[in-house]
Amino acid sequence: MDRLFDRVIVRPPGESYKNCVSTNPQHATIDVKLAQKQHREYVKVLRENGVDVVELEPLETHPDSVFVQDTSVIGASSGVAIIVRFGEPSRRGEEKSIEKFLLDNEVKINKIQAPGTLEGGDVLVTDQGVIFVGESQRTNRLGIEQFAKYFSHVKVVRVPVTKVFHLLSAVSYLGNKTITISPQIIDVSYFKGFKLITIPEEELYANNMLYLGNKMVLIPAGYSKTEEKLKREGFKPITLDVSEFWKGDGGVTCLNSPFYKPL
User: Nearest-5° angle of CA 87, CA 89, CA 92?
Assistant: First the structure.
């Protein structure tokens, strides 16, 4: 299996995106038109790399809904999906349209139940029979326990996350038992048995990257050290300007919800 998915759900940012939840000091400078343009470029890259992209309508009632990854964890092989319960209360409700889409496409639904919380950005899927789930500000232990019950055919490893919102802000899977990691943020001991590529501390944002197969890796533009490191490891970085999503505390994984082949 060269990549984890062949199909993804995306949702363009609506006009309300400028009101998203963000701690970024440049949050107030979000340019929605530029964000929409950057999103179109993102979708173009996915399609150019053979990914089937299902594009939903903007959801104006939920400013953060462009970060569709957080809404669900979808299994392509099992035909089963988990609909999350957001740890960020203001986002609760945006998962409902994803649930409807999946039900319309005959995907079986399981839901994270209160007081459990789980967001897709905390779920690192691999093709090695193990899934890493971050226990974070947004995902709690009860949510992880429910996740493990719903996907009982894989091993679920809980990883403490304290310095970023989500696990996938500091860890990415690039296929072939290879993980990029920011060791100043995440304890590397949880990932024994995997080849680890460390990302420079000052380029943490670049560790939110998306492996597209055939050694192609989508990364945010402007992180030359990470780009060069990936090249030295035999990968082919594709850089994309995602400045307006950086301002919203999101990255390139956040913008899609994959149908994961190992699940």
Answer: 95
